Amino acid sequence: MAEDLTQEVFIQLFRKIGSFRGDSAFTTWLHRLTVNQVLMHFRKRNVKLEHTTEEGEMTNVVQAGSERPQSMPVVDRIALDAAIAQLPPGYRTVFVLHDVEGYEHEEVAEMLGCSVGTSKSQLHKARMKLRGLLTKKT
Question: Going from the N-terminus, what domains does the chain have, and what CATH number goes with each?
Fold first, then answer.
Protein backbone atom coordinates (compact mmCIF):
# COMPACT_ATOMS: atom_id res chain seq x y z
CA MET A 1 0.00 0.00 0.00
CA ALA A 2 2.84 2.45 0.77
CA GLU A 3 4.27 1.93 -2.70
CA ASP A 4 0.88 2.66 -4.28
CA LEU A 5 0.49 5.84 -2.26
CA THR A 6 4.00 6.94 -3.16
CA GLN A 7 3.22 6.41 -6.83
CA GLU A 8 -0.01 8.42 -6.48
CA VAL A 9 1.93 11.26 -4.84
CA PHE A 10 4.38 11.35 -7.75
CA ILE A 11 1.51 11.37 -10.23
CA GLN A 12 -0.08 14.29 -8.35
CA LEU A 13 3.30 16.03 -8.22
CA PHE A 14 3.62 15.70 -12.00
CA ARG A 15 0.08 17.01 -12.52
CA LYS A 16 0.27 19.91 -10.05
CA ILE A 17 3.88 21.10 -10.25
CA GLY A 18 2.64 24.09 -12.24
CA SER A 19 0.53 25.24 -9.29
CA PHE A 20 3.59 25.63 -7.03
CA ARG A 21 3.84 29.40 -6.49
CA GLY A 22 7.03 29.50 -4.45
CA ASP A 23 5.31 31.22 -1.51
CA SER A 24 6.82 28.62 0.79
CA ALA A 25 9.61 26.06 0.55
CA PHE A 26 9.11 23.36 -2.08
CA THR A 27 9.46 20.69 0.59
CA THR A 28 6.60 22.28 2.55
CA TRP A 29 4.40 22.25 -0.56
CA LEU A 30 5.35 18.64 -1.36
CA HIS A 31 4.65 17.59 2.24
CA ARG A 32 1.15 19.13 2.08
CA LEU A 33 0.52 17.45 -1.30
CA THR A 34 1.59 14.11 0.18
CA VAL A 35 -0.52 14.49 3.33
CA ASN A 36 -3.58 15.43 1.26
CA GLN A 37 -3.10 12.44 -1.04
CA VAL A 38 -2.86 10.02 1.91
CA LEU A 39 -5.88 11.55 3.62
CA MET A 40 -7.92 11.28 0.42
CA HIS A 41 -6.91 7.64 0.12
CA PHE A 42 -8.18 6.81 3.60
CA ARG A 43 -11.38 8.78 3.12
CA LYS A 44 -12.42 6.61 0.21
CA ARG A 45 -15.18 4.19 0.98
CA ASN A 46 -14.12 0.64 1.80
CA VAL A 47 -10.39 1.20 1.82
CA LYS A 48 -8.54 -2.10 1.85
CA LEU A 49 -5.79 -2.26 4.43
CA GLU A 50 -3.14 -4.90 3.95
CA HIS A 51 -1.91 -6.77 6.99
CA THR A 52 0.76 -9.43 7.25
CA THR A 53 0.06 -12.46 9.40
CA GLU A 54 2.76 -14.03 11.56
CA GLU A 55 3.32 -16.55 8.78
CA GLY A 56 4.05 -13.70 6.34
CA GLU A 57 0.82 -14.03 4.36
CA MET A 58 -0.92 -10.88 3.17
CA THR A 59 -4.53 -10.40 4.22
CA ASN A 60 -6.92 -7.61 3.28
CA VAL A 61 -9.10 -5.99 5.89
CA VAL A 62 -11.91 -3.79 4.63
CA GLN A 63 -12.41 -0.59 6.56
CA ALA A 64 -15.83 0.90 5.96
CA GLY A 65 -16.03 4.57 5.10
CA SER A 66 -18.73 7.05 5.86
CA GLU A 67 -22.38 6.13 5.48
CA ARG A 68 -22.71 9.03 3.03
CA PRO A 69 -19.21 9.71 1.71
CA GLN A 70 -20.33 12.33 -0.82
CA SER A 71 -21.93 14.57 1.80
CA MET A 72 -19.20 14.37 4.44
CA PRO A 73 -16.51 16.54 2.82
CA VAL A 74 -18.94 19.45 2.38
CA VAL A 75 -20.30 19.13 5.92
CA ASP A 76 -16.77 18.78 7.31
CA ARG A 77 -15.58 21.81 5.36
CA ILE A 78 -18.51 23.96 6.50
CA ALA A 79 -17.98 22.95 10.14
CA LEU A 80 -14.24 23.58 9.89
CA ASP A 81 -14.71 26.98 8.23
CA ALA A 82 -17.21 27.99 10.90
CA ALA A 83 -14.88 26.85 13.70
CA ILE A 84 -11.89 28.65 12.16
CA ALA A 85 -13.97 31.83 11.94
CA GLN A 86 -14.58 31.61 15.72
CA LEU A 87 -10.87 31.55 16.55
CA PRO A 88 -9.29 34.70 17.95
CA PRO A 89 -7.48 36.60 15.14
CA GLY A 90 -3.95 35.65 16.27
CA TYR A 91 -4.78 31.95 16.57
CA ARG A 92 -6.58 32.00 13.23
CA THR A 93 -3.71 33.70 11.40
CA VAL A 94 -1.08 31.27 12.65
CA PHE A 95 -3.35 28.25 12.05
CA VAL A 96 -4.10 29.27 8.47
CA LEU A 97 -0.48 30.10 7.65
CA HIS A 98 0.94 26.91 9.16
CA ASP A 99 -1.71 24.19 8.80
CA VAL A 100 -3.56 25.42 5.72
CA GLU A 101 -0.92 27.26 3.69
CA GLY A 102 1.95 25.02 4.81
CA TYR A 103 4.45 27.59 6.06
CA GLU A 104 7.08 26.53 8.59
CA HIS A 105 7.10 28.15 12.05
CA GLU A 106 10.20 30.16 11.15
CA GLU A 107 8.41 31.59 8.09
CA VAL A 108 5.24 32.34 10.08
CA ALA A 109 7.27 34.08 12.80
CA GLU A 110 9.07 36.21 10.22
CA MET A 111 5.82 37.17 8.47
CA LEU A 112 4.07 38.09 11.71
CA GLY A 113 7.07 39.66 13.43
CA CYS A 114 6.96 37.31 16.40
CA SER A 115 9.17 34.58 17.82
CA VAL A 116 9.08 30.95 16.67
CA GLY A 117 7.94 30.01 20.18
CA THR A 118 4.98 32.36 19.91
CA SER A 119 4.05 30.83 16.55
CA LYS A 120 4.18 27.33 18.03
CA SER A 121 2.20 28.37 21.09
CA GLN A 122 -0.48 30.14 19.06
CA LEU A 123 -0.80 27.11 16.77
CA HIS A 124 -1.17 24.74 19.70
CA LYS A 125 -3.83 26.93 21.30
CA ALA A 126 -5.64 27.27 17.96
CA ARG A 127 -5.72 23.50 17.49
CA MET A 128 -7.00 22.94 21.03
CA LYS A 129 -9.72 25.56 20.54
CA LEU A 130 -10.70 24.05 17.17
CA ARG A 131 -10.86 20.58 18.68
CA GLY A 132 -13.21 21.88 21.35
CA LEU A 133 -15.38 23.74 18.84
CA LEU A 134 -15.62 20.78 16.48
CA THR A 135 -16.28 18.11 19.09
CA LYS A 136 -19.10 20.00 20.80
CA LYS A 137 -20.94 20.29 17.45
CA THR A 138 -21.03 16.55 16.90
Answer: 2-63 (no CATH), 72-136 (1.10.10.10)
